[in-house]
Queue: 3 jobs
Job 1
Amino acid sequence: MIANGLYDFIYGIALWILQVVAWFFNNILAWFSVGAWFVSPGVVEFLTTLLVALVVFIVGFLVSITFIWEERKILGRLMDRRGTQVGFLGLFQNFADGLKTFIKEHIIPDEVDKQLFNLAPVLLIAMSCFMICLIPIGPDFFMANLNSGLLLVFAVFSLAPFAILMAGWASNNKYTVMGGMRAAAQLIAYEVPILLSVAAVVVLVGSFNFMEIVSFQQDNTWLIVPLFIGALVFFISAIAEVERIPFDLPEAEAELVEGWMTEYGGFRWGLIMLSEYVRGFAACGVLVLLFLGGWAGPDFIWPEVWFLIKMFMVFALFIWVRGALMRVTTKQILGLGWTKLMPLALINLGIAIALKMGGWL
Amino acid sequence: MERIGLAPGGKTGDVLAQDIAQRFQQGVTVTKSTHNRLYAKVDKSVLVSLCTYMRDGLDFEHVTSVSGVDWLEEKKMQVVYHITSYANKVTAELVVDLPRDKPEVDSITFLWGGANWHERETWDMFGIVFVGHPKLVRLLNPDGTEVFPFRKDFVSGRRV
Amino acid sequence: MDMRLAPHAVAMSSAEFLSWSGGVMDQLMRYTGAKKAVDKLTAPIWSWAIRNATVPLHFGIACCALEMAAASGPRFDAERLGMIYRSSPRQCEVLLVNGWVTAKLRPDLRRLYEQMAEPRWVVAMGECAISGGPWYDSHNTVQGVDTFIPVDVYIPGCPPRPEAMIDGFMKLHKKINKEMKGTFLND
Amino acid sequence: MAEMWLNMGPQHPMTHGLWNLRVKVDGETMTEAEPVIGYLHRGWEKITENRKYPQIIPMADRLCYGASMSWSHLYCLTIEDLMEIEVPERAKWIRTIVLEAQRIGSHLMWLAALGTDLGSYTVFLYPVRERELFLDLMQNLCGARMTYNYPRIGGVRNDVPANFERDFTRVLNHFEKRLSDYEALCDQSTVFRMRMEDVGYLSPEKAKNLGVTGPNLRGSGVDYDVRRDDPYEMYDQVDWKVCVEKSCDAYARYRVKMDEMRESCNIIRQCIKKMKPGAIRVKPPRTAPKGKTGWAHVEDPRGEGFMYVIGNGDERPYRLKVRSPIFVTVSAAPEMLVGYKIADVPAIMGSVDMCLGETDR
């Protein structure tokens, strides 16, 4: 079903575990039918898929955590100051942040719509983690190799405004409602350019499957070369999707206190912050897969490591933009989205079609 | 030399002092004047007409401050206006005496918007009522304080 | 389902079952002493975590607020201790009172303190927050923040230097480490 | 559309100090604004009636803590006008240098606060880093970082330390190179121009009438500066130009303050060349006759600072009135705010450089 190196490796482990259990049932309890059931292919495949999902999630989670560390350190260096010094080189800072939220008090303000208030962070973190398993990190290190992988990623990406609006509305606070509405307007405004730039890639490659996109780029050039405008549009729209500085109006520090996150504290806020960085992981991952040739690279290092290096460099670009620019107001965000990015995306689509028709690519 | 956004007034303090003195004989007594200062004692009734003339006639564009003074022994309240003319580079100090038991004076907020909060603060601190002020409510003290803290009979250090 | 078929069954909603089973588990853990052992083991981890991620509230009152800003500047970078200023009280641990508190500000400051999530500390920075400072004979100043909020660390100085503020936070870390407030030891 | 009142403050990341902007909002546009102040009111003028004349100097430092030197200097000027004291020449030169250094420090703090408001944490940290250099200079001279207690009635407290000229020129040369960095970060970034241009319009007539003074007045195209038109200390013996902008919006106020910083460097350099050795203080009389009055006004970095004092016969003043420039500019805030969007409030109020310590006294 998922033919890749990770799956086979973990298949061996799962089989070994189940054989130990089966040996226990057969020899000690002499319950042969159950023992045989344990070793049957259905159960083994189920356990393997579970373990593969666990491994992929842990890797995705750790990479997102190191994004937080990377952001603090590079942002510090951009601002001529050292970043956090907690632990070795500041690496333990995000564990401290994460663990701290476990012991914080669970505050649910009483005039708040309880069900929605609790559901919003859960929805957000669920969507983000779902995206981790859709993004392949290497040729034989992924959870699911769907033919419509790219489509599913962007379907999940566009689910976020619902959770944010729900959070904003449920917190029953003027600031959060405005933050939620701004978030919805901004994310919808940036769905169109991002999907157009993705359409250009799909026109050239011909399929939604990440594997084929990367192999196409391995045969020909990286898609950033012909579709540079598309990559630029994707980069800017990805910043808006992930609500980072030039476009982080929903969480605008200056006017809306904390935007739609104001009423969340403790563990719920921890989940929301984590989901923000996991969405950053997903955005960088898709950008690398579509335009920077995924795990293509000279093979003295593992392909997975190539993929991670490129992702950290793209995220460093995100941070650099955050360090240099200021926040844009809603009117300008929507103006930029509709009037500037969309024509660029259309031009890019035109180029892609021309290349395809002309037969060069 | 010509300055952007300002009338070409070049009159010194003394010239302005004579102009005011001969125009308002009975209500205004000009005590002292130098090339950029002008000191005068003004009667309550003449204040608004003098201020209107100063603003429109003599290019006094800006109220620097309106300060209240509480003379406990002499049983009088005093309001001191400092009005500046950017064009002539002159600042005028007008002193108005009011009875201490019923201190009332006409507001000049309709002439200069800058005096709005100064008058409101003077009322907040001294209880001097500015007749015709658009919004005479507490400004600096917490809402609901009944006492006027800057009067001499209010001992400082006592909690409101 | 006909309840008469299972006479000993107890009708319980899911929420009730949840709280009932939680109660049983809790008593079991306490009775066997497992809770105390686990808490004693994990307490240092929780206190290390909260020590290295103390987030003060982005809230400046007066001159000490400028020194707080200077402390997060490039020269005395407070972020080395993991201190980032967030502006919503729900997500902060430390309420840094840096300036004189007037009668008009007291109810708001009290509400801000109550909005903060539980393991919270208050640091009174500067003479005005400690005891009213140079405004000792003013009619409108509250003589000391600890008259209406429990204060953990006092940082003297008018205004205290940024190093003094960072030293104040180091003292707060020692206090967190000793008191283990926020960990599950004492509940 | 239903209009709602929104409270921006008193605890709000946008406010520099504590005030509450009650805004009536129709959608995102502001139809009415009403600033509420008084959160920092400590009855400063009432307390001065229990203090002797020299004891009020440290209190005057804490009026506006961003520019404490200019307020204690203004207080000394007022008392010198009351007691008719002639300050020796060298003291005047030192005062001019120190006032201009404090102006640069105050403008840097304003630029830092403007940076956080517009969302760029870098523009907050670079000016704070440069301000540390000026704080070091002041610390060599007066011993303290922010509240200097340096001017005295009749001169200054102590003479300049060793190699005072070398330190000043070294810091000024370094600072002028850095100023071009900030302009690259702010002026050349279109995001900053989009946020600041044609926002918070204040016509020259309205500015003069509403009592707005200082850089905010010169930003609205009115060429008035107390240092040139009513000179005190040594400003008439130093040739420098007043910077005026005519576009009357937030960007103009920003431009005026940035040019003023360059102008201050120019003034300091000339003062250092023209300073000659001599006495630095005159012994003032201890008391002032009852009923005698004195007043003075200076060009504070935020506007026209003014103090009016009445003698009481003994060593204590009978009444000391302080006019704070920001007290009046905040009362003129609704004029600048109405008609703009909520997202523009930080840009407008950030460009006005508020310091609430002097507003509430």
Note: Chain C touches chain B through eight residues (CB under 8 Å).
Job 2
Amino acid sequence: MTSGEKYVAAAYLVVFLTLLVYVVIIASKLQRLEAALTDLVERVRARG
Amino acid sequence: MSGYLSDVAALARKDLLLELRGRDTLPAMLLFVASALVIFHFALPSGTGELAGLGLLWVAIVFTALLGLSRAFVAEREQGVLDGLVLAPSDRSAIWLGKAIAAFAFLALAEVVALPLFALFFSSVDGATVAGVVLADVGICAVGVFLAAMSIATRARELLLPVLFLPLAIPLIVGGVGASVTENPGRYLGFLALYDLLFATICWASFEYVVAE
Amino acid sequence: MTIRARGLAMRYGAKRVFEGLDLDVEPGGFVLVTGPNGSGKTTLMRLISGLVLPTAGELEVDSDRARLGFLAHEPLVYRELTALENLELYGRLYRVPERRERIGMLLERFDLWDARSERTGSFSRGMLQRLALCRVFLHEPSLLLLDEPFSALDAEGAALLDRELAARRGRSTFLVATHDPERLEPLATGRLAFA
Amino acid sequence: MWLRNNALAASAALAAVLLASAIALIAFYVPVDADQGLSQKIFYFHVPIALTAYACFGWGAWKALRHLWKRQEGADLESYVAIHLGVIFGAMTLLTGSIWARASWGVWWAWSSKQLVLFLVLFLFYCAYFMLRFSVEPGPRRANLSAVYALFGVVLIPISFLAIRLAEDFIHPTVFTSNGPQMSGSMFFTFCVSWAAMLATFGALYRLELAGKRIDARMRELRELLA
């Protein structure tokens, strides 16, 4: 791989990784939301 | 309009009176700028040219201003007086303009000492630099007082002011250094005037939202 | 109606200060607001004064800032300035006619004339409260929001305030938060109790 | 709700299609630049990402204005999410920019590249936005302060651009121009597709994060009602 190719690959990889990390963070937030929701449902059910 | 100006005058007068009584901000700024210039003397190795000194003058001005600005709304916050000013019938931007005029006065006084001191320590100060300093002070005080009011409303208080202020001060540094370093300072003075006009307008228009909901 | 509130609610994050509050105060009315500390008396005052917005409900206050007087827990005066200078500042901001005479008369009436040129930083709590009362009455507001006006006042100060309130009954509209409503019972035209 | 959910899915699909075609065009269709060589291909991502970051800050400022002026419900949240994405695109601009500077001029940071320097200033400014926002309790006060600061930001963009151009004269006027090579037809077409792809990505991520934040807000409401 010539140095030019390395840098091009690096640049696109950086963009891809940043977006990937972003999506992963959003996904983990959604999971936390889901857990909070189930906790709330139980609380309502416990209230009877 | 005349009512607005009388409100601004009353508020600016109050700030000058507070400083006269308290006598804490201005002496601190004077000593700060003097010691900063001395430090810069030691920070400049022998080889550096005159331009580096001029550049550091602007660093001293911005950080001296920052020191004064962090005190801008301390009296209002600690004694809870801001509510009294916000409840007054006057336009809320008068609070900003009054405080900005007072801040400008303090900064100008500090510079009346700093510039001759700089000329003594480093190199002469030409007319363009002085014009640049005056124009930059307008921008510094307009934006600085506005951001001081914002940071006072936060938990981090004065700690937040430099973080909010320095990015906005970068164009002022460019304009100021440009005015004092290049041969035709006209463009830079014009740029500083543009900055002042733009940011003073947005500060005047949106200050209401900083102090009231 | 000077003040009209329907379903007023105020919440700070998870903490519900109050909700579903309805209130009607006709011009010249004198409403006593009672309730334990932290039950929302002060919050209601700040809402009506326009300093904060409610999280829910409607609130209409028929009074612009020039005709509103608000006595808060804080005296809202600069400790570095003298009593005169503080009232001078507010006098200008509220464009009070014959400012000096009015300031002199109020300081006299609230027995602060001798201390008029002293820094308010050296004032006792009672003197600060009296200065705050001067500030509130300075521009002769038509709507007065008084948050525990008798706090820190000695017997003599309280008597002064009683006289001022009685003198304005029926002319100005009052909303007074207090811990001993019996004192103001004769003046009251309405009551609002917070749980 | 139906339209909102499907708008999210639709925008995500659009972004995916555009991104894929952009990458395909960059990799196979567009010719290698004559003098700059292969590394010039970073340009097709670097500049569109930068322009998209401007769009994010502009959109954030527009929503801030809506909040301050029209008291539009939810505008504060939208302004925050747009600026949040703006900072992410800004970070990508700085990273790809520095890789491009390394590839073309052998240095990891080029003060002479006006675009990069402008982004550095804006990046500092908008990071301060989050420090401001997270040091105020959620509520109307925080929304107002954030909105006003966002408006300052959008005024700062042209001012900083002008300042950096003016600074050229006395800092070190070097020869590298950084406004990109002249673009032939195919290059320009690829550039436009890549820009559209970046804007679509912003649209998709914007709706995605907003959906998450709205559910989170409603969840907090529910929890308070049950408390």
Note: The longest helix of chain D spans residues 185-226.
Job 3
Amino acid sequence: MESVLKIKDLSVNFNSKDGIVKAANNLNLTIYSGEILGLIGETGSGKTVLGQAIIKILPQTARVTGEIWYGNRNILALGEEEMNKIRGKEIALIFQNPSSSLNPSLKIGEQIAETVQKHQGLNKKEAWEKAEAILSQVGMPPRFAHYYPHQYSGGMRQRAMVAICLACQPLFYIADEPTRGLDVTVQNQIAGLLNSIIKNGKGQRSMLLITHDISVAAALTDSMAIMYAGEIVEYGPTREVFKNPLHPYSKGLLNSHPAKGLKPIKGFSPSLINLPEGCKFFSRCSRAEKDCQKEVPMFGRKGGKHIVRCFYA
Amino acid sequence: MSKKIFPKNRLLIFGLFLLTLLIMVSLLASYVAPFDPNYVEVENRLNRPGGKNILGTDGYGRDIFSRIVFGARFSLSLAVLVVLINLCIGVFIGTASGFFGGAVDELTMRLVDILLAFPNIIFALLVIGILGPSIPNLVFALVALGWTNYARITRGLVLSLKEQDFIISIKAIGGGDFYIITRHVIPSIIPFLVVLATLNMGHMIMSIAALSFLGLGVQIPTPEWGSMLSEGKQFIFTHPHVIISPGLAIIIAVFAFNLLGDGLRDVLDPRTKEIIKT
Amino acid sequence: MTFKFFHKGAALVLLCLMLFVMISGCGSNASDPKKVGEKAYPSDQKEQVLRLGAARDFKSAAQGRNMVFEYLVSVDHEGNPVPMLAELWEIPGDSKTYVFKIREGVTFHNGTEFDASLAKFALEYNANNSVWGKYLDKIETVDGNTVKVYLKDYYPLFLQDLAKNLVVSPDAVDPKGDPSGKLAEYIGTGPFKLVSYHKDRDAELVRNDNYWGKKSEINRVIWKTIPDPHAQIVALKAGDVDMIGITEHHSSVPYVEVPAMEDAGINVDKTSYGRYQVLEFNTLREPFNDRKVRMAFNYAIDKEKMVRELFHGLTEPAYTITAPWFKYGPSKVNSKYFHYDLNKAKSLLTEAGWSMNSSGKLEKEGKPLEVELLIPAGEANADAVAIFVQSELKKIGVELKLLTLESGAAWDRSKQGEYEMFVHHSFCLPWVPGGIDIGGKYHSGSTSWPAAYHSPELDRLIEEAWLTPDESKRKELINKVWDILHYEAPCIPLYDIVKVSAYRESITGFKPAPTMFDMDFSEIKIN
Amino acid sequence: MGKIIIQRLVISILVMLAASFLSYFFLYMAPGDPAVSIIKSQTGREPTQAEIEIFRENRNLNIPLLDNITIWFGMLSKGDLGISVRTGEPVLHEFKDRFGATFLLAVISLVLAVLIAFPLGVLAATRPGSVVDHVTRVIGLGILSIPEFWLGLMLMVLFSLTLKWLPSFGYGTIYHFILPTVTLSTGMSALLMRLMRASMLEVLNLDYIKMARSKGLNRPLIIWKHAFRNALIPVITIIGTQFGHLLAGTIIIETVFSWPGIGKYLVDSIYARDYPVIQGFVFIIAAMFVVINLLVDLSYAYLDPRIRFEQGRN
């Protein structure tokens, strides 16, 4: 399979009043065309930062190092103007929390149409027609284009959000917690919608699905990366990871799922400001040994594509 | 913390420095001022700056510098007085209104709405114009409407505090209203009040000066900055120095309070920024 | 979607409405002040345009009205009645009947001829607003140019009152021809006609070519309202106006500006109208119930220095209660009575029982000599005078406190006698100077000044003078009044508030009008 | 929305009535006789008792307080604000004749201030911590510390007296507008700039701005179409509530520049105790205040669809 996006040694730091926040540390990740890659982790593990780093909309205070290869272009080396040709047109970001991510003072139709206008050079009228078409594509009546976000229900807003991202038919999608805060039935609808977008892409479209929801990840993704404290700790095809989680954190995460009996991991994830040396999971790990505290474990390959960052897995 | 604040808040430090200077000058006015601010010597009137009168003399031959120095004492203490009265009334009404709610709240907030609708300088003009210029009338005119802003903001803060877990839990374990208000509510809103009062100080100094300028402020021959401008206005085209330096004194004092308030707003609590906009 | 329509629509309609109302509200006068300004420049050599900078709105200033309207009887500088639209008058017998002979050949600006019946109308119109109206019995026209006025009682000020009664056309009042109507249009007989007027901005007048008297050389007068005196001076220096100060009864031109104006080549003219600024004593209270203290205060103030330093020597210090040259003025008293003399002041105070204590302050029985000077807000130059007097009195150990009150409140205090010293200015023409008016200050019946100096002897003399139609007898009585008053020193006369008029060099022939409410343009020319 | 407007209108009318009643009451209780002050201002001397009586009778000043108030409300219901004691002209005329000048001064200054403040505020907000941001902050604070009337006097000294470029007073040509409007708009623009910056900063940190960026929209479009419009809402509210401040500033500036507006007239009427004028002016000013607030509400609804629709549903 062809890779769409290759992340190499990506680190993201923020300067804050209290010190340097290390939101991502030496991340490496490859997304292949046609696949949905799940990025799983607790809140605050740096998932969202990764998503926004790919499309380069992190705040100015962020310091990003490493490489992100999109096709043959290193996104991190691109200028703002070139980047604007990629954003929305080739890579789209589906935000979490659509109620705050949709502009309250613009009609949904306008928010879709302006992307089309920008990337496809259509005039206003054509862009609006297109916007209505896209809305019906995501399962909403075209007249809803004339409504404002606050007139939509939560599920409809998420659909509208998907519609905005779908507007220019990009090939690569980043979906950031797309099902968060929705009813279960609506969650399923949105998940189905996302799935159909990728599956209808004839192997051309791919998606990075950022979520903390294990069941959504299990249902949608082809492969999975588990993130903890700014690092990826385990990666592999979804089925294998689920069947046989290797990292102690992955095990805990999968076990904390209600379906498996709700066994929470003891302790809290470390603050991203004062990260411990060595394995970041050390303090909460039941299998930890002394050397875990000294050195960050390297990835070990456990058959096929399944890799894990743990000395004892 | 302090190490990091320092370079970022040079303006705050500068404001604090200016203010300290002003307070020192007004406290030590009789030592700083070279002359009696009310000593009239008509033979020496309208001297240009320089010589034994650093900032020159006014239309009656009084030393402008000495008048500005004593004026600092007067203008500052009057503004402080007005702000304090406003603060006390506003906090009292705002707290009562926000904490107890109900009909009292409804009634006071309607009253506040009505009073806020009144342009305060126009009101002061009306009051002093009718009752005559005097310090009690001036204070009354500025207080009659001045407390409303404090009441409004205090009420808002108290309302949001009331919903917070720690207040609810103190209430649950049987803490009395008075105890909660004095020990928990008021202390938590102090940072906001400090910022508000500091910014309000500058505004008050200007309002008092404006009213004095219109001849509605303090009695002659009190050395007050606004009335110095009012008296000096007749010399604007012949001897502009008479109105330049008192004006600069007002600017420096107001600037000091504005810098301080603005800086404090950044330092004290990030929420102050959202609540106190101007 | 009806809501959407409602909102955008309503917002727009309301906005438009507001704007329309606001603009139409101001449209009536926002349109053409520029026109006036443009016309103001005398492009045509033959046309003489005089631009006046005035502190007040044209219609609210007596000087403005007096360009358009005239009186039956006017007064001269000293207060003697002189003929105007009444050529002459007779007071046959009982001094209650006046016969006026109306000037012939006078027409109103609308073309109607002025005659006895119109004079009768004007008198009836004014009777409603004048004190003499209360004494009025009836008005009769004897023939085409004779009017007879019958008063119920003798009223000595009748002719002087007429000198402030405008002769208006019946067409000028609303409703037309109704003597109790109100003045609506400026239709008079005066030397100028009003052609355009914008409230608080300007007015334009053209010469009345049918004027009965000496016609002015000026074809057109532009009245520009500039409330601020300093702005007036700038306008004069910049050539935006030709003349300032003439349109006010008070001196509106600050004395301090005069030297700089003279340096800038501007002619400055000062005219005394006998208006004196005085400090009144409360003679019912300590310490001013003692004549010696009142005299001491008079001696203690160096008026020469005050006038020289504060007023640039433009005015004259005052040593009589009012101007001696008035018809009923104190011409016979010793005017040098209260010249500056610190030693005399000190010894008078010692005589009065006040002695200097160790801290340089006067005291009597342990009580320091502290008095309060009440200043009605807005009294011209009062602040300057007060501060000067304060510093002068300090030299003899008196502490003077200053209290400025809103003028209404200050006058209420005077009515109640609740003051120690009070700064104000005296009566002036065309009203009879203080003392003779029964309501005046120094008669015990005065409601405004119950605490001024009063005595039964003074009351008797004043009443007698009031009721004596014979001029020489009356003058004799009045001289006695002034003698008593100047002996008792009931006030401190300070200085003569001269009216300052300033005009550009190109203007010649300026002549001060007989009263401060009039303007005389008969000789003025612009070169 | 309709309901809200009606509710507001009712409150506003109450406010207006209360305001004029209060001002009237104040005047009535205050010392001093309007007859005396008005005759004094016209003749420059103390009136005699006889003159005062005539004047009081002619101008209806002898009517007791309560009767006068009922008369006034009766006239008000017919749109009549009474007749000025001082000039004998209808109050509404007096107001209309002067309001244009005040309105023009206030509006031109406000427009000028908006034109200066909004771009600068946006500029500072889009570059937080930059030199531009710091400089505008310090200058803004500095300007806010200058008393308006003093600034007016200084500009007068500089541009009229020293440089002789501009007229110092009066009304008429465009040049007459420059100094007063510049004076008024200076302080106003500093205030608006600070508000705009704060509001813009807040909006720029919101999710939908990131969303707009992620769509590949260019910066100007994001700033002006997405952020500015939303940042405007709180600023407009404050402009509305600051209207009284603006009017007050105008009154002081009018006395400095001899501007023939309502400000100076109101001050003079207060001194002369011209009851009907003060009462009427206070009523009209309160009414304007109410209308401005209503306009602000409407523009608010226009800018922020949430309010428009949610309240419309009620």
Note: Chain B touches chain D at residues 11, 110, 113-114, 116-122, 125-127, 129-132, 202, 206, 209-210, 213-214, 229, 233, 236-237, 240, 243-244, 247, 250-252, 254-255, 258-259, 262, 273-274, 277-278 (CB under 8 Å).
